[in-house]
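FAQ

Q: What does a record look like?
A: Structure on top, sequence underneath. For example:
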């Protein structure tokens, strides 16, 4: 997670440097604040503990691209937790129909 936040912050800093001039390092402090703000907003939107699950895991578990997309856009609720995994309820609403998927996911693939 921290690696992803830092990568996003550097990406934002480089965009700022390209747009306004100067060096990316000059924009890094603000970019890091922006990266954290975006992460917290997404965390609140997704349910509070998990922002995303890595794509390769979802493709391996669910296979079909539409199922993967639906789970990526779901709100996650952690129902149970062990030392190495979460039992997640992924809730989505499509076309007026509630879709709920429950599955175990290793903590190592959660963001």
């Amino acid at each position: 997670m921290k690696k992803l936040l830092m990568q996003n912050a550097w990406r934002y800093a480089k965009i700022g440097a390209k747009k306004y001039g100067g060096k990316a390092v000059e924009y890094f402090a603000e970019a890091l604040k922006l990266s954290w703000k975006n992460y917290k907003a997404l965390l609140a939107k997704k349910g509070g503990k998990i922002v995303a699950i890595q794509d390769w895991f979802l493709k391996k578990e669910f296979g079909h691209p539409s199922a993967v997309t639906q789970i990526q856009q779901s709100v996650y609720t952690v129902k149970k937790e062990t030392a190495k995994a979460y039992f997640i309820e992924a809730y989505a609403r499509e076309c007026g129909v509630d879709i709920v998927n429950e599955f175990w996911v290793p903590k190592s693939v959660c963001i």
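Q: Is there anything notable about this one?
A: Helices lie at 2-20, 24-46, 55-62, 65-72.
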